[in-house]
Write a structure and sequence with these properties.
The chain has 450 residues and is an alpha/beta fold. The chain folds into four domains: 130 residues, Rossmann fold (3-Layer(aba) Sandwich); 173 residues, Rossmann fold (3-Layer(aba) Sandwich); 71 residues, Orthogonal Bundle (Helicase, Ruva Protein, domain 3), CATH 1.10.8; 50 residues, Arc Repressor Mutant, subunit A. The chain is 47% helix and 12% strand. The strands form four sheets. Strands 2-1-3-4-5 form a five-stranded parallel beta sheet, sandwiched between helices. Strands 7-8-11-6-12 form a five-stranded parallel beta sheet. A hairpin with an 8-residue loop joins strand 9 and strand 10. Helix 18 packs across helix 19.
Length: 450
């Protein structure tokens, strides 16, 4: 046990000396006072890990000392000493926030044990404060890297959104950082001390997702061997992040809508609703407005979720941030080494389409950090798809008619040509066009391509 700095207050000179000796013998640093007034003067001048005070003293009582200490440091443990006939005073002190009490005659072992428990509590409280500060810093908006105008506008809007309790819909391609933005909103909100619970709606099997979201009662279905709280209940008092909300079944969308409107959920197999206080942040990589028009997503839920809509730009639309992001990732994967990207490699990084966005760039930088021979990342350390020169768009011959051209028709023809070139392989066709496979599939569906 780490040794502590103790303030000991007691008007009984003999008892005070005995307790001081016992505490010093255990390795603690002790300052003593014979009255409450003297004790508070020492408290104002010094820094202490705990206060031990008698309750019944001439002048200022131990109860008054407790109140004054708590005004200055509500987390500081205060142990009170009471005679056997004044237990009521000790109970009052406990109600006011004292850590514990010891009855006279004071046992050396009881004194040391009680103090050890108080020090453990003090240490855990400090660690908890430090951990919360670390988590808040880790998910502050400053950790969403970028200096482009698109990112500055996004973070400005997200900061204003965080101060409210409104539902938020974050839209953007896979790998753009939607989850990081959601955590930033939570840890910069009034709910930051509450839980942040994330659910990937696309990753949970359909048979289990209702139970995962809303919980269930024992025996409500095969395998339900005990009651279980759902994610809504686990997020009570905090934020629930529904990632990939666009993949949620239409019947579950109705139940989420009810949970948002009524602030209560129905467990599977339950008959009584459970009240919840949850802020919902949802995210999707799908064109949710198109899903609403096609009937795949409820319009009323869409409007309920999108009180505030944040659009995270893909990396190809903020290429000026690529060099900065690459530098940040290199510091992460090469601690202690000054690793940089060679100009030709940076040109390749900037020219690439990044269908996997920031997540893909991070993976590329990790790979390059493993393969590097020197402290300079060259084209040789980059994947083939980046290191090979690509034909620029400006080199494609386009015969633009005088009467104008349909951009949608042009996009449709590009999709067809890319699929033909790669014999229908959607993954390769998507890479060729610099988009993700889900984006390719969505656009194929949009134009009725098979």
């Amino acid at each position: 046990m780490k040794k502590a700095s103790i303030l000991l207050i007691d008007d009984d000179d003999s008892l005070r000396r005995v307790m001081e000796f016992s505490l010093v013998e255990a390795g603690h640093k002790v300052q003593t006072a014979s009255s409450g007034e003297e004790g508070l003067r020492l408290f104002e001048k010094g820094s202490f890990d705990a206060v031990i005070t008698d309750i019944t003293m001439p002048g200022m009582s131990g109860i008054e000392v407790l109140k004054e200490v708590q005004k200055r440091d509500a987390e500081l443990p205060v142990i009170v000493i009471t005679a056997y006939g004044t237990i009521e005073s000790a109970v009052e002190a406990m109600k006011l926030g004292a850590f514990d009490y010891i009855t006279k005659p004071v046992s050396r072992d009881e004194l040391r044990l009680t103090l050890d428990k108080a020090m453990k509590l003090r240490r855990l409280a400090k660690e908890n404060v430090a951990l919360r500060a670390e988590v808040t810093d880790r998910y502050s908006f400053e950790h969403i890297v970028g200096s482009s105008e698109r990112i500055r506008e996004l973070l400005d809007l997200a900061g204003r959104v965080a101060a409210s309790d409104a539902s938020v819909l974050i839209m953007g391609e896979t790998g753009t950082g939607k989850g990081l933005l959601a955590k930033g909103i939570h840890y910069n909100s009034a709910r930051k001390d509450g839980p942040f619970v994330a659910v990937n709606c696309a990753a949970i099997p359909e048979a289990l997702i209702e139970s995962e979201l809303f919980g269930h009662l024992k025996g409500s279905f095969t395998g339900a061997v005990k009651d279980k709280e759902g994610k809504f209940e686990l997020a009570n008092g905090g934020t629930l992040f529904l990632d990939e909300i666009g993949d949620l079944r239409i019947d579950l969308q109705a139940k989420i809508l009810r949970a948002l409107q009524e602030r209560e959920v129905d467990r599977v197999g339950g008959s009584k609703p459970v009240a919840v206080d949850v802020r919902v942040i949802a995210a999707t990589n799908k064109d949710i407005e198109h899903a609403v028009k096609s009937g795949a997503f409820r319009e009323d839920l869409y409007y309920r979720l999108s009180v505030i809509t944040l659009q995270v730009p893909p990396l190809r639309e903020r290429r000026e941030d690529i060099a900065l992001l690459a530098s940040v990732f290199l510091k992460k994967f090469n601690k202690g080494a000054e690793v940089r990207v060679a100009p030709d490699a940076l040109s390749a990084l900037t020219a690439y389409g990044w269908p996997g966005n920031v997540r893909e760039l991070e993976n590329v930088m990790e790979r390059a950090s493993v393969l590097r021979r020197t402290e300079v990342i060259t084209r040789a350390e980059l994947p083939d798809k980046l290191s090979k020169e690509k034909q620029g768009v400006e080199s494609i011959i386009l015969n633009l008619p005088d009467e104008g051209i349909s951009l949608e028709d042009l996009e449709k023809q590009l999709l067809i040509k890319s699929l033909e070139k790669h014999k229908g392989n959607q993954t390769r066709a998507a890479e060729y066009l610099g988009i993700t496979r889900p984006t390719l599939i969505y656009r194929m569906e949009k134009y009725g391509l098979k």
